[in-house]
Design goal:
CATH topology of the largest domain: D-amino Acid Aminotransferase, Chain A, domain 1
Order of helices and strands: HHEHEEHEEEHEHHEEE
CATH class of the largest domain: Alpha Beta
Number of domains: 2
Radius of gyration: 18 Å
Shape: globular
Oligomer: single chain
CATH architecture of the largest domain: 2-Layer Sandwich
Distance between the termini: 18 Å
Number of strands: 10
């Protein structure tokens, strides 16, 4: 894949969020609508294309943890707020490539996590669990070796303690389990077909109604 080969040529082991989502989209994994910009003057056109409400993020291959570094502004609803957010993030962002993601604001209260890790002995393993900021604390995950089939995906979802989050609850639709299962299958394919990928982290994967959308993603490559 050209995105991965380009990063390797540049000596990088991390893809930016934008690049990571391009890898996911190539495997039919739903990702947010977003526009990558470099300059302040490009912001109005990007806002027009995405529409309010939106999210603005600093985006660079050198950034792995945007939230902790104050590089994300959520639920922006008007122009002045968008420019203020851009200026604030620009003052904080570090690295050689200072880009910005103008991203749709995905509406959904339920957050999931899907990941991939490459085990030295067994190869690519797919993970599924609860997402958001408490992922590392809750550690409510299930795992399978790739390749996966639909039954594997459904079993993984049923194995987490928080399985009921996928069911209809408090007026929210039940998750599209077939779609989630397909995402898990595609994650396994990515690992099997791209030996240079070491890890993938989709967190959060937000349920917008019944459908899941990857809101943030990180791809880690094998180092030399």
């Amino acid at each position: 894949m050209e995105i991965i080969e380009k990063a390797i040529r540049e000596g990088r082991t991390l893809l930016s969020e934008y690049e990571s989502k391009q890898v996911l989209a190539a495997y039919r994994i739903p990702v947010t609508r977003e526009v990558l910009i470099e300059r302040r003057k490009d912001l109005p056109q990007a806002v027009h294309e995405i529409g309010y409400p939106l999210v603005l993020k600093g985006c660079s291959p050198d950034i792995a943890h945007k939230t902790e570094k104050g590089l994300i502004r959520m639920d922006i609803r008007e122009d002045e707020e968008a420019f203020d957010a851009f200026d604030d993030i620009m003052a904080k962002i570090q690295g050689t490539k200072k880009n910005f993601l103008v991203q749709e604001m995905v509406q959904g209260k339920r957050e999931l996590m899907i990941g991939l890790t490459r085990d030295v002995q067994f190869g690519p393993c797919v993970m599924f669990g609860l997402g958001g900021i408490f992922t590392e604390i809750l550690r409510d995950v299930s795992m399978r070796l790739a390749p996966l089939n639909k039954r594997d995906g459904l079993e993984m979802m049923s194995e987490i303690k928080g399985y009921r989050i996928l069911e209809p609850i408090r007026g929210m639709e039940g998750a599209d389990l077939a779609q989630l299962s397909d995402i898990l299958i595609q994650m396994g394919r990515i690992g099997l077909e791209n030996d240079l990928i070491k890890e993938i982290d989709i967190n959060p994967l937000i349920l917008a109604g019944s459908r899941a959308v990857a809101v943030d993603a990180l791809v880690v490559l094998e180092g030399k």
